[in-house]
């Protein structure tokens, strides 16, 4: 009897070794190596080139056509996908447990099936009755929506030819397994095999497929990075679990922009799209309170206005505490250093807390000026005028740098009734003739604080 050969595979990055290691030398993580049986083909395959097979051709001789899409009837999701679901595409959806991935996808299934297309919802985590209970709560009822509770890839593939759906939704990729591989479901080998199988199904049969992927405690998709490279689109579902707002962000999209953002609100009836999130997110801004300022940001092609809050108070300990929610902590530390060095604010003995209202995370550098002004407002205890919006990137020397899409930002501010906007001077030439809103150009951080908090132009 032949000896069974085993290998150890890192469940984080896919690194392989013949012996067990406590720490993966590739991704430097501990206790991620799992023993798997090494599969080897007993027969060697010999390939012959057929004269009628594909061959290299000139790029100029290739004829192209526009991708065939169909809508999810959810405008926010269609925008993130680049205009709808592309026929034969493979989409990976990741997010924290309980964030609303299954709720969103069952709503997509209902909308697509009601339009006359067949949808197959495959679940390896829930039974048919559990899915029916959720569908009843959301008011979903369609003859073209098929539910299949199965996690064996061979059985799933056998039923696909009978149903021939237009859309497949798999919840989740970590639960399915191939009986040809001896390792347990959720291991690197099974995830790679499952994704590869559905990729072939999507491309060969022209079936659009959504697969749900679990995330690690760091917030990244579980499994090797190869999983994200294999699919056409990667969507991240973000938001605080106990907050009502949810964000869908595309981090990879072969058929559209990777900067688009969809905003939803979680309710008893499911996820409701917010077509004008700016108005809702700033509706509860307190009046005449120091440390609160309205900032302008752009996510993809959408301008958004958000409320940014700062609290500065004397520390009770030797080392002051810095907390940032919704923004990059290192960026906040950098801006606090600029405020001390370039503006002269003595905040080295102050606790500083930064928060973007609504549980939204923003990484755009145009919020720098808003962070700095909110900290200065709280430190000086001077409220910011509620009719003012600020935007601009702050450099290490205290200069205010230009931002992108300045016309869209100003248009959004004017639409929501704001009368003043602080912008970088290098953006001023483009919008100096804008009517209906007062544009206040600034060169440096000290000048911006004087204008917003001191009223000096």
TrEMBL record:
The middle region has homology to RecA with ATPase motifs including the RadA KNRFG motif, while the C-terminus is homologous to Lon protease. Residues 66-215 form the RecA family profile domain. ATP binds at residues 95-102. SMART domains: AAA. One of its GO terms (cellular component) is cytosol. It comes from the Bacteria. Residues 351-457 are annotated as: Lon-protease-like. It holds the Pfam family ATPase. A motif (RadA KNRFG motif) lies at residues 252-256. PANTHER family: DNA REPAIR PROTEIN RADA (PTHR32472), DNA REPAIR PROTEIN RADA-LIKE PROTEIN (PTHR32472:SF10). One of its GO terms (molecular function) is ATP binding. Keywords: ATP-binding, DNA damage, DNA repair, DNA-binding, Hydrolase, Metal-binding, Nucleotide-binding, Stress response, Zinc, Zinc-finger. CDD domains: RadA_SMS_N (cd01121). GO terms for biological process: recombinational repair. This is DNA repair protein RadA. NCBIfam families: sms. Belongs to the RecA family. RadA subfamily. DNA-dependent ATPase involved in processing of recombination intermediates, plays a role in repairing DNA breaks. Stimulates the branch migration of RecA-mediated strand transfer reactions, allowing the 3' invading strand to extend heteroduplex DNA faster. Binds ssDNA in the presence of ADP but not other nucleotides, has ATPase activity that is stimulated by ssDNA and various branched DNA structures, but inhibited by SSB. Does not have RecA's homology-searching function.
